From TrEMBL:
The keyword Oxidoreductase applies. Residues 10-73 form the Nitrite/Sulfite reductase ferredoxin-like domain. It comes from Desulfobaculum bizertense DSM 18034. Signal peptide: none annotated. It comes from the Bacteria. This is Nitrite/Sulfite reductase ferredoxin-like half domain-containing protein.
Length: 212
């Protein structure tokens, strides 16, 4: 089958596939959990795994059932994802509204056209539970607002993100994220991840281009 759903991953047996679906900011309802379980049972998924990116992976699906399974799942398949902590909505340490901001970022950037996949981490305080410093873009909350960090990566060539700007309102943080992504899209090589792009350009050069 040539037209596999976006993000389908061929497994070790070279016959079955995994699909990953993204609950917005990692938040699910009981009804959505029940639907995931229903789909997993219906299509005999040997494994359902919660990934490090707060996604559900249904592993071991048959190729000819992929489209039907994806259509029945309650969350979108593939796309960029946003990882978030509970923020000041629930957590007593939260300084900023991580969940609300993550939802806005997902709506705004979930299908953003860029040279490579992007991962966003939105942490409501400096404890950084959403792993913002090792995401392509990250927000970290404080009493003064948001710090925007760029260029993090947790893969084989791990990298701690650089601080692009601090003390941002939620609106300004999202606007600057969009400005950075447009700059990245216009200047990065094909399939070049944000971490490698920031290494190549240098954070000072990026600050100058975006903030003057």
């Amino acid at each position: 089958m040539a037209d596999l759903p976006a993000g389908s991953i061929l497994q070790r047996d070279k016959e079955s596939y995994a699909v990953r679906v993204t609950p917005p900011s990692g938040v699910v309802t009981p009804e959505q959990l029940e639907k995931v379980a229903e789909v997993a049972r219906k299509y005999n998924a040997p494994m359902v795994k919660i990934t490090s990116g707060q996604r559900f992976a249904l592993i071991g699906l048959k190729e000819d059932e992929l489209h039907a399974a994806c259509e029945e799942l309650p969350f979108k398949v593939a796309g960029h994802y946003v990882q978030a902590c509970p923020g000041n909505t629930w957590c007593r340490f939260g300084m900023q509204p991580a969940l609300e901001t993550a939802h806005a970022a997902e709506e705004r950037f979930g299908s953003f056209a860029v040279p490579a996949k992007i991962k966003l981490g939105i942490s409501g305080c400096s404890m950084c539970c959403a792993e913002s410093y090792v995401r392509d873009l990250g927000l970290i909350g404080s009493k003064k607002g948001w710090s925007l960090v760029v260029g993090g990566n947790s893969a084989g060539r791990a990298r701690i993100a650089d601080v692009l700007a601090e003390g941002l309102s939620t609106e300004d943080a999202l606007d600057l994220m969009e400005k950075f992504l447009n700059y990245y899209a216009a200047n990065a090589k094909k399939k070049q991840r944000v971490a490698r792009f920031v290494e190549e350009k240098g954070i000072e050069s990026i600050r100058e281009a975006l903030l003057g």
